[in-house]
Amino acid sequence: MVFNAAARQLLMACGPSVHVPSHDWWTYLLTTAAGGEVYYDPVPLVRYRVHPENVVGSNIGWLNRARRVQMLARGRFEHWTDLNIAALKPFRPRMTTENRAIFELFSESRKRGFVGRQIGFLKAGVYRQTMLGNLGLIVAVWTRKI
Question: What is the rounded (10 degree) CA torsion for 107, 109, 111, 117?
Fold first, then answer.
């Protein structure tokens, strides 16, 4: 990751004790919530280092995808969402008006019944980057695993 001084200041404002499951996802959430722009370079310049302490690991291959489905079923992503929401709450004043509304809608929709949850997530406009990721998101919303 490469980020500018504004993103660094935002991250530094979190302090060393912010409890989030993934530092790269946290950086993305916090930066975009505050209105920062993120550019994704599809050309890897550094090899992905997999080690025993990886929280998620690679998403390449059916075995790794099956592992993520298992994590979803066990509620790990729901727990991670809880952690990210809790960490983002103190930063609501720094969010753009639009992103604060999305954040509130996303957070509240998780607590609703089946139909209200579906409507809330649709209105919030959250999505994943891949078709399989979006399918997983839909299943997570249906089954209250997000």
Answer: -150
Q: Is residue 47 part of a domain?
A: no
The length of the chain, given as a count of residues: 146
Highest mean pLDDT among 9-23, 88-102, 124-138: 88-102
Containing structural domain, residue 91: 5-39+59-142
Total tally of structural domains belonging to the chain? 1
Q: Are 31 and 10 in contact (CB under 8 A)?
A: yes
- Check residue 48 and give its pLDDT: 66
Buried b (16+ CB within 10 A) or exposed e, 86-124: ebbeebeeebeeebbebbebbbebbeeeeeebeebbeeb
Whether residue 128 is contained in a domain is answered as yes
Model pLDDT, residue 60: 60
pTM: 0.80
